[in-house]
């Protein structure tokens, strides 16, 4: 057969989050970490025994977004490969049908040209999207969240500028219902549809200060995102104490803003 199949789980982050990947590698006890280009590093797991460690974890702690569909499809491929089914034409075609619907990517143009008769399968439907623990939300925020300080010109303001805070979680448009469910789960925020994706946003200051910040005080973030959160919290305290209404306080918030939100991790099966 002309194609070789390999199942790989990987997490890619900016090199500043290398320590986070090292913690993940230590936790699982499998996988390797390698540098990708000048600014990225990747935690990578392959091989049936090593992948079983990863799959056991996600079987015990299921994903809640459409990434769970990707995981279930990935698990199906690994199980088929372990049985040697990928070595048959029928088995390879099945794997290609699965690949065609994974990770919002599908097959490459070259594969589509070489295998024009491949029919994408239906993705598994994820019914349970309820957050069981705010530890999960903290981990999800490490990967998909953003703590943002917004500034804009305001003729009505004494200083000519106004500042507000935003907590944002972003997902592909397929996870619209999940993001909307966070409104009731956290009792705050709103959903904003974008082109191809959507955002759950909390920007009312009392909600940010009284509902969002207490979550991450109890359920800790890791890596660079934790530093962004600490800066976000500093800005929130300045606003709470009305320091943003002074030139010195506003300049301090601007300085904080300049050091935040550089890069986020990405997870792939």
UniProtKB/TrEMBL annotation:
Keyword Nuclease in annotation: yes
One example GO MF annotation: endonuclease activity
GO cellular component, one term: mitochondrion
InterPro entries: Homing_endonucl, LAGLIDADG_dom, LAGLIDADG_Endonuclease
UniProt keyword annotations, A-Z: Endonuclease, Hydrolase, Mitochondrion, Nuclease
Domain Homing endonuclease LAGLIDADG: 2-78, 137-235
Keyword rRNA-binding: no
Pfam families the record matches: LAGLIDADG_1
Protein name per UniProt: LAGLIDADG endonuclease
Species for this entry: Cochliobolus sativus (Common root rot and spot blotch fungus)
